[in-house]
Amino acid sequence: MAGLDDALSEFMREVKAQTNLNIKETQQITKAGADVYKEQLEKATREKHYSNHNDKVWGHMADSIVSQDKDIDGDKNGVSTVGFDSYHAENARRLNDGTKKYKADHFITNVQDSKEVQDKILQAEHDEYQRILKGKEG
């Protein structure tokens, strides 16, 4: 009976080691997903709202999407965020949600809700998680 107890204890130790991630490791995983989301949002923004206007100061909205390995308040707690810089954020919201003057086209919402995009994000996070686990093993 002691053999089974030892085997179960070892199994639980291994599971705990693999699932007990520190903040840095969690940030690496969420940042991998955030980078994929950023890429997909840039693509959708270029397709829907890229113009020939050459604004040398502010640039294009599609080129102003930021991905960071911290939350919206700048705290490093394992969360990663993606969004438009402060200059372009309000315009992106108006185009996505619509106003009295603009018909909503939901380009941001469509990227968020896309099963294909969600699968790519999950795959990127999975790959990063596997890389972290391999580092723990060796």
In short, what is this structure?
InterPro entries: HK97-gp10_tail. This protein is mainly alpha-helical and 138 residues long. 63% of the residues lie in helices and 6% in strands.
Distance between the termini: 31 Å
Spatial arrangement of strands, main beta sheet: 1-2
**Poorly predicted runs:** none
Largest beta-sheet characterization = 2 strands, antiparallel
Number of helices: 5
Shape: elongated
In percent, how much strand structure appears in the residues? 5-15%
* Structural class category: mainly alpha
Helix and strand run:
HHEEHHH
What is the radius of gyration? 20 Å
Kindly describe this structure.
InterPro entries: HK97-gp10_tail (IPR010064). With 138 residues, the protein is mainly α. The protein has one domain. The protein has 5 helices and 2 strands; from the N terminus they run ααββααα. The longest helix is centred in the first third of the chain and has 27 residues, at 23-49. The mean pLDDT is 90.
Write the layout of secondary structure elements.
Layout: H1 2-19, H2 23-49, E1 65-68, E2 81-84, H3 86-97, H4 107-113, H5 115-137
Antiparallel strand pairs: 1-2
Helix pairs in contact: 2-4, 2-5
